[in-house]
């Protein structure tokens, strides 16, 4: 058993040792595995760490890249947005207030209200569209909102030409206080206030504008004024911006009207700026939420925060408003004369009438004015300075460019002091003339006779045309031209500026002028003779009273601003006309025939000259310059066509004495013929020595021009010291002239008296020129000799050309009150009143004569029915 026990022990030991060995091996193995596992784990951990680091760095790089891209994109977007904003809101629409000024633009712009807050330093303005686009509703903080509204309005005003944006303010709570800073616009009508309770009327009024503009301005051709403007570059209507500030609750009809305007107004330039009224969001309505800091919003910018600009500085608002008001009150910039000119000049036929535009209507359409059988004649009226003369220029320019001188002729008369029509005649500086002008009368205010002369001349032309019409059996100019295509039958337009001067007073000139006018007006219509009369106040012209038939012929009426009573009694259109506008009415002033026209400035010398020169260069070669009558210019004998025609002849049966220029269209010289017949002496009467000397010199020089050097004798007797120089100068010019004075007067008269009563025939004429004949020395004897010469001389070709310094002195020379006056067959009176001339004038009445400088009254009893006014030729001319 022991053995077995030991054995068993040994066996157990062996077993144990075996197990131990196995365990040690297993342990070793396990240890090895553990170490390997630990190592593996370390490696994995290291790899993971490296990987993580790599990922992190890649992520960081990527993030940096993304950030960079983001920054670049944002900068690009912000830059583009800023540039686009600059384009959309240039100048006054977007400039900051610190250097802001009005800059009228050629199209409507968006308006800046603040800036968008972007995570980028580039400044991007927040803009809202208003003019031509839509409406703006301001909500939120009231005070900040007020500044937004003020800024918007100033920007809108500043981007348009003065007056093109009109504001209408409705501010019932503050009674206009909200718009008080714009008040300087009110007097010029650029800002109007609507009182509390005026909202319905205001909305109706704006709706009416929209309707009118749709119907008559857009007229189905355009969908909006903006489109019209883009297509035609015209903007016939202003923008009307109604500012509605806190109206409270609206009634249903008001709501409806407001909705209508919000829908339809913008296309017609009617825009609403609303604060404190509930408005539903809709297309074309921009909502601005006023708030401080970053909390403001503008609906078109979505959720982007907006920082609003402060309001415009008061000084800038005031200065801008003042400037706009001044510009509006000064009136619109003048239209250019060129706008009246046709594409091709001288292409129209005047057969049936004369048609030309006079300017633009407020809708921008040219207004045509016609002179024809109806209306045949025009009256133009307007207070001083309203542009009558300018309108005449513009009209003449438009006509002259359309019709050639063969179609149209002008006769022009200006009764106002000045030179307004002088531009049409050749002058010292500019030799051109308007080829259509046949006559220019300037400074005729004291020579109303020249007006008569023109009317008489036209009367003659009328007769000539009527005779031709009769010959061709036609009744008007168009038919006459058709029957006589070779004839020269231009339409005649006679323009009389300030014609009231011609018709003023109740004298013979006015009476004859009215008669002539009436005849011309009545019969001229069918013969192509048209009258244009301009005056400050037609109703003041006495001579037209009681002549309704005459006035009725002038069915074309043109009224300048504030013209009175030229249109029909109830037609007050001229009262509210802006400056440089006119109402043209071709139906005697009937209300429904009114057409408003904006007249271009034709006074501008340069523009006018360009036209005149062009037409002048085109003139037919045979067309000479117009006759120029200038009442302020002393005519020269050397220029007288009648004087130039005088030439020496062997036999001069009836020597002609020229005296001065007659006041007529043809520049004739007044004349008296010294035939061999009783009474053929000439007396010059009055105290004005220069004029008397000038007349005697003209008379003697014109006589001398008809004789060969020894063909006539002249004796000059000068009895006035002061006239000596003139007498001597004359004597030196005359061939065969004897000169005498007070010392030699007695034997000269004795000699000449003997010659006058001699029985042998005279061989040649003898002209005795006496200066101051009333100062004859030698008492009764020489006086008697002078009477003998006056009575008997002419029969023997011995004629006296004498100057007496008064009519009564001449009477004395003839033998006193009871004596006959027929030895003086012709006289020229200077400063002698008509009544004093009665003894030398036939009939019971004295001539109507009120002396005036450098004018004389001439009467020749052998040819004249009445006396004529003449202008002495300048001495030494
Ligand atoms: N359409 C116009 N555009 C610009 N300026 C104008 C226009 N019409 C007139 N004017 C200017 O106004 C001034 C007065 O015009 P104009 O002489 O034609 O007036 P008027 O009515 O004839 O005055 P008056 O009765 O004193 O003769 C002028 O300086 C003229 O240049
Ligand atoms: Mg004038």
UniProtKB/TrEMBL annotation:
**Single GO term (MF):** DNA binding
- Identify the InterPro entries for this entry: FtsK/SpoIIIE/SftA (IPR050206), FtsK_dom (IPR002543), P-loop_NTPase (IPR027417)
Q: Report if keyword ATP-binding is assigned.
A: yes
Q: Which residues bind ATP?
A: 382-389
* Pfam families tied to this protein: FtsK_SpoIIIE (PF01580)
Q: Where is the FtsK domain?
A: 364-569
Keywords, sorted A to Z: ATP-binding, Nucleotide-binding
Name the UniProt record assigns to this protein: FtsK/SpoIIIE family protein
**Protein's organism:** Paractinoplanes atraurantiacus
Please spell out the taxonomic lineage of the organism that makes this protein.
Bacteria, Bacillati, Actinomycetota, Actinomycetes, Micromonosporales
